[in-house]
Structures
1.
Amino acid sequence: MKTFLLTVAACGLLLTGTAKEPLYRDPTAPLAERVDDLLSRMILREKLGQLSQPLYRSDDTTLDARITRGEVGSLVVAHGSALAPAERDRLQRIAVERSRLGIPVLFGFDVIHGYRTLFPIPLGIAASWNPELAEASARIAASEASACGIDLTFSPMVDVARDPRWGRISEGSGEDVLLNAVFGAALVRGYQGDDPSKQGRIGACVKHFVGYGAALGGRDYQFTELSERALRETYLPPFKACVDAGAVSVMSAFNDISGTPASANALTLDRILRKEWGFDGFVLSDWKAVTELQEHGIAADGAEAAVKALTAGVDMEMTSDLYLTTLEQSVREKRLPAALVDRAVRAVLRVKFRLGLFDRPFRSHPEPDRMLLTPEARRTARQLAAESMVLLKNDGVLPLSPDLRSITVTGEWAVSRDLYGWWVGMGDGRDAVTVWDGIRSQAGRRTDVRLMSQSRSRRSDVAVVCVGENGYLFGENNNRSDIRLPYGQEQLIRELKEQGNKVVVVVFNGRPLDLSAVVPYADALLIAWHPGTEAGNAVADLLFGKRSPSGRLPVSFPKSVGQLPLFYSDRTSGRPGNDRYVSMDGQPLFPFGYGLGYTTFEYSELRLSKSVAAPGEQVAAEITVTNTGGMKAKETVQLYLHDKAASFTRPARMLIDFRKVELAPGESRTVSFDVTPRQLAVLDAAFRPVVEAGEFEISAGGTPSELHSRILTLKR
Ligand code: GLC
């Protein structure tokens, strides 16, 4: 009888041709129902497959079969390797058409500061203090990456970093909590837009959750000793800003957090990220971070590592395969509740639906090359590179006069194409504009411009000496115990000066450097970071005064590596002014927030809408800035706070807002900030934000040493 009924039903379907599509394939169905429907159809092995992100290797002969079996939820395309858009769609077609449930694969790649068009490294982007421009760069990066089949980028990196010895300080927005939060959220918005499923958008995976930048001694992967207060005041807020901006994924970090590794840490991954913040995307482990729980010494074997990571809240395992190879048995043996597997699978499926992968699994552009290196991309890269550069010294030699008789361009970075930092995406050095290209294109017609190798030299009106760090001297696990210019570049600078040249030093760096031995011989000193594809044009725009430099340091530049860690917003001490060494003070060579331009700005006194207010009231702070020089320029008005007496010690100064404004010569602008209860709050003993009565010093200005202050008193 049963066979008969099944046959009748099958015939009916054949005749009507209307086999009922399962709910999860219905794009009009609510997302949660599609997830539930699909989950209900999955067997355990397929579920564990969705939690696996192996490395894509073009020579992997088992990949097609594994995708067909539903054992590959996602693929990571590694740094330096490439996945052709056509190959990506071929693999996707196997997943969608051959696997039992047709669940699409999620393709992830490190689009860190551009895909083919490279923008400045993230530390340079932060130095622009221009989040709108940062967002534009991420939008372009997403457009290029999605055209080539990428669905998810492992960016933004928002690890607050205060030790320049750490190579990965180059990848985030520096030492400040607010800058990492503002730029992280801007990049998330740029990548995802208001709907990450739309053409030209990709998902953002914010990393490395959490505290990775506090690695002991600036040595990558080392443990971090962080109190919950330090986590909540300093390292977590940038991630919260990115989650609030809609990031679809978070990457759990390598580091141990005071005894519990970040990739097995229920406090951060579950209690804070999910229960307190309501994050409903998925958590991806960093590279092999799940299996490394064994090396951390909290798992006796791979099965225990997998159970601990998944239980804590790591949904998907990058490049190790313990979830797929051990969790079926762990579930069978009741060492892992099946419900926790379902929780993780739901998170992954939610993101795949949210990214539109089920409804539009084939994303590559038919002619992807047309989407790369567009004029708009190059224009944006040039502007962002120029705005990222920070002028630290200028005796008046800049901007260079078009009437100069002779310019010598020298140093390794005069013609180097090593301008993309450590993460290079799909960047090709041949796309880059070198400094030599840029200077030649803008020098005065009557100026004799020569490229001189470092060995030879000549006496000229100006010597532009281009020095720096190679991309392999920073980035992942490229930590330096000596942060001066490498391989004797200081000597080249000194010799040029001693020959009687006016010396303009341009530095291509990935971290704050100890430039103490450079400053005396530099008539001008410009920090260019690794500025990306339009490097040479951006440098020339600034050297010849097409634009005034407007970058401000997102990180302190120390006098010596011996001062590290060194950052502006450290907690007060019981003996202020004793922050020093026997042979050196505790102040940076160049402070956070500092930078020069080709004009001057004057500030009014700071005005508060009220000097006495009740806790919880909003107060406005206003200041008027005037361009008192002769050139149009951008200025970043910075607003700082010091809570003079609170239940817990607070930073001596903390950036709470900033505004970058462009002013013509003689033009004034009144900049108004809202000082909100959230900014004034301190975390109480239970880490709840509370606004306490007392005095708050509010200060504003364009450079840290010249701030205008007012006292705000909160009274009950
Ligand atoms: C690396 C990095 C992480 C990167 C990932 C994929 O080890 O720690 O930042 O996104 O692996 O390349």
2.
Amino acid sequence: MRVAFLGLGIMGQSMASNLVKAGHEVTVWNRTPGKLVEGAAVAPTPAAATQGAEVVWLCVSDTDAVEEVIFGKDGAALSLSEGAIIADSSTISPSATLKFAEKVAAKGVAWVDAPMTGSKIGARDGTLVFIVGGEEQNIERLKPLFAAMGKKIFRMGETGKGQATKLAMNLQIAMIYEGFAEALTLATKLGVDSQQLVSLIEATMVRSGVVEYKAPFVLQRDFTPNFPLRLMHKDIRLTLEAAKEARVKLPGLQTVEEIYELATEEGNKDLDYAATLTLLEKWAGVQVKGKAA
Ligand code: NA7
């Protein structure tokens, strides 16, 4: 398929590369020039990349970035062909997604929201899980592309439902991790060995995919970003906004948001979100240690 891929960040660069490897004809664009994908053509603007594309795949930071890339100066909307599909793997506002979809529908273009989970390793290995909203027939057309970048697709309903579900998923990731970080901090302060605590967690119903994934990094104090704190913070804010629009109260997440705010003030926004632990450690006057540390 002819694909314009817009946004070559941590996730987008690997995703576009996997599309090329699967034999698709890919033209890439990134706001900051110089990011390349072997085997893909490079366009100077989103509009130029979109010329003649059957699918425009987006993977940029946030709602404003999606708006700019599609509807801004030299945006993709200027050269969308009738019958094209926009697939958006950025995590953005569900209500803004509906507005954007309505705008491009006037040009005969469909919008599929396709945020994903699986972090940079999943993007690199083509094992992402896509959480998708849109018409079944459009998702069907995108299947070869999904297959090149991921291992599973969950269709959650019409356009917008992918983003809504992604927020509900990240809400849990953020809160489960904070629970783990608080438990580690308290246990360390009370003199419990953190490696032993992790072994116990893994042997009991307290275990979770989040802890299983994060514990080895945390115990080695490796906070290099798999999923940067700034992006999780963005998702937490999006979730709180969506909850406000829907008149849903999320008091637990509200508190977690304050921790992210403070972690950002501490200068940790570009570390992995696991680095929120360091704030708890600072308050408690302890440092969690693993066997290897
Ligand atoms: P990164 O690595 O922070 O990459 C973000 C990308 O978005 C990168 O290509 C940026 O371009 C681009 N970006 C950011 N703002 C804009 C604007 N205003 N216009 C155009 N392009 C922009 O994020 P990830 O790849 O980890 O994640 C991407 C999304 O997937 C995000 O929603 C996550 O929550 C999930 P730059 O190179 O800075 O010029």
